Automatic annotation (TrEMBL):
Keyword NADP: no
Designated name of the protein: Putative gamma-glutamylcyclotransferase
Transmembrane region(s): none
Key words, A-Z: Transferase
Pfam families found in the cross-reference section: GGACT (PF06094)
Domain Gamma-glutamylcyclotransferase AIG2-like: 20-113
Highest taxon in the source lineage: Bacteria
Length: 152
């Protein structure tokens, strides 16, 4: 599938019916629970030809195409249309939502399209060093998102 492109609309049936390949913070139960109020079904997965890299001045990673690499993550399944919409608002606008082949099936993934560091993002280091503050940041974002929705 495509390795570059524009951000797909998560309300389209082909996206709604596909799992989300989570390679960064969205594979962490406490982040998912903070944002969605639950942890969706998930299974370990690998995306060949892609790499989760560190981003300048951001604690979360970006997914970039890179031969001879494999991005480890999880396939999230059973996301509702409202959850897809929320996650799409949550993701930085510098990501493109696109479809990729993960372990022999079509999945959706948020791929980074800006500058990145030539360093692998490390999930374990993130959990040790950044997770509590990041979960709080997610809760703050969610409160602002709900307040904005209530005023429209």
């Amino acid at each position: 599938m495509s390795k570059t492109g524009t951000r797909l609309d998560p309300s389209q049936p082909d996206i709604l019916d596909s799992p989300l390949f989570a390679y960064g913070t969205l594979q962490i139960d406490s982040v998912l629970h903070t944002l969605l109020g639950r942890v969706p079904s998930k299974s370990a997965a690998q995306l060949v030809g892609w790499r989760a890299v560190r981003l300048p001045e951001r604690p979360y990673p970006g997914l970039v195409p890179q031969s001879n690499h494999i991005a480890a993550g999880h396939l999230l399944t059973g996301l509702s249309p409202a959850e897809w919409a929320l996650l799409d608002r949550f993701e930085d606008p510098d990501y493109d939502l696109l479809q990729v082949e993960v372990d022999g099936q079509t999945a959706s993934a948020y791929a980074w399209r800006k500058n990145f560091l030539d360093l692998d993002w490390n999930l374990e280091r993130f959990v040790e060093d950044e997770l509590p503050a990041y979960v709080e940041r997610c809760a703050t974002w969610l409160a602002r998102d709900r307040a904005a929705a209530a005023t429209t």
